[in-house]
C-alpha cells in the first residue's frame, strides 16, 4: 500500500539546508538543518516545516501527532458550524385546483418547518401564458398562506414561461 502524501515535511524530510526555527522553549533564529533536528530530538519533539515558501523556510518544534489531532479537531468544528441550505421545489400551474393547492401547501409547510427553503414554480404550458395574472394571484395566495411559517425571499418573477418565488423559513 503506497504511503499517502503528508501535509507537512518533518525531521529528515525537510530539504532546505538553512531554516528559521520557532516554537516553545526554543530561541527563535536561523539554524542549519542538522542542528535544528538535534534541538527537536533533545526535547523529544518533531521539527515540522510550517511555511516551506518562506526564505528561509519556517520550521516549528512541536509534537506532530498532537498537531495533526488539533488540526483535525478544528476542521471538524468548522464543518459542524457550517449549515447546509436545502431547497425544496414545489410546482403549480395557472389553473391549480383548490385541493391540489392545499396538498402542496401542506408539503411547503412541512419543508419550512424542517428548515428548508421552498422554491415555488408556476409553469405555463402552451397557451396558458395568457393566464399570467391568474398565476401571479395563485403565487401571492400561496405566499400569504405560508406567512406564519416563512418569509418571501423573492417575489414572484416571470422568466419565459416560468414564474418563480423563493420562501425562506422563519427562525
Q: How does this structure look, described?
A:
This protein is of the alpha/beta class and 171 residues long. The chain folds into 2 domains: 11-76, Translation initiation factor 3 (IF-3), N-terminal domain (Ubiquitin-like (UB roll), Roll); 87-169, 2-Layer Sandwich (Translation Initiation Factor IF3), CATH 3.30.110. Helices cover 34% and strands 30% of the residues. The protein is built from 4 helices and 8 strands; from the N terminus they run ββαββαβαβαββ. The chain has helices at 33-42, 64-81, 98-113, 132-145; strands at 18-23, 29-32, 46-51, 58-62, 87-92, 117-123, 150-159, 162-169. The strands form 2 sheets. A 4-stranded mixed β-sheet has the order 2-1-4-3. Strand 5 (87-92), helix 3 (98-113) and strand 6 (117-123) form a beta-alpha-beta unit. The chain is rod-shaped. The two termini are 49 Å apart. The model has no long low-confidence stretch (mean pLDDT 87).
Topology:
Blueprint (H helix, E strand, L loop, with lengths): L17 E6 L5 E4 H10 L3 E6 L6 E5 L1 H18 L5 E6 L5 H16 L3 E7 L8 H14 L4 E10 L2 E8 L2
Parallel strand pairs: 1-4, 5-6
Antiparallel strand pairs: 1-2, 3-4, 6-8, 7-8
CATH architecture classification of the largest domain: 2-Layer Sandwich
| Shape verdict | rod-shaped
* Main β-sheet description: 4 strands, mixed
Intertermini distance: 49 Å
CATH topology of the largest domain: Translation Initiation Factor IF3
DSSP helix fraction:
25-40%
Structural class: alpha/beta
Q: What is the number of strand segments?
A: 8
Strand order of the largest sheet: 2-1-4-3
Number of helices: 4
Give, in order, the helices and strands: EEHEEHEHEHEE
User: What count of domains describes the coordinates?
Assistant: 2
Segments where pLDDT lies below 50 for 5+ residues? none
Can you identify the CATH superfamily of the largest domain? Translation initiation factor 3 (IF-3), C-terminal domain
Instruction: Give the percentage of residues in beta strands.
Output: 25-35%
Mean pLDDT: 87
Radius of gyration: 30 Å
Amino acid at each position: 500500500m503506497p504511503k499517502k502524501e503528508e501535509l507537512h515535511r518533518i525531521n529528515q524530510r525537510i530539504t532546505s539546508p538553512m531554516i528559521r526555527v520557532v516554537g516553545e522553549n526554543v530561541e527563535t533564529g536561523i539554524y542549519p538543518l542538522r542542528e535544528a533536528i538535534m534541538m527537536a530530538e533533545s526535547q523529544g519533539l518533531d521539527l515540522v516545516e510550517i511555511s516551506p515558501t518562506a526564505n528561509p523556510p519556517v520550521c516549528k518544534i512541536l509534537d506532530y501527532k498532537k498537531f495533526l489531532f488539533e488540526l483535525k479537531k478544528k476542521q471538524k468544528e468548522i464543518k459542524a458550524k457550517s449549515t447546509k441550505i436545502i431547497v425544496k421545489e414545489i410546482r403549480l400551474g395557472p389553473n391549480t385546483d383548490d385541493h391540489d393547492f392545499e396538498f402542496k401547501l401542506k408539503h411547503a409547510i412541512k419543508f419550512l418547518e424542517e428548515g428548508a427553503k421552498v422554491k415555488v414554480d408556476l409553469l405555463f404550458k402552451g397557451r396558458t401564458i395568457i393566464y399570467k395574472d391568474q398565476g401571479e394571484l395563485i403565487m401571492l395566495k400561496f405566499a400569504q398562506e405560508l406567512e406564519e411559517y416563512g418569509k418571501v425571499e423573492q417575489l414572484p418573477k416571470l422568466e419565459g414561461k416560468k414564474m418563480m418565488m423563493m420562501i425562506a423559513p422563519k427562525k
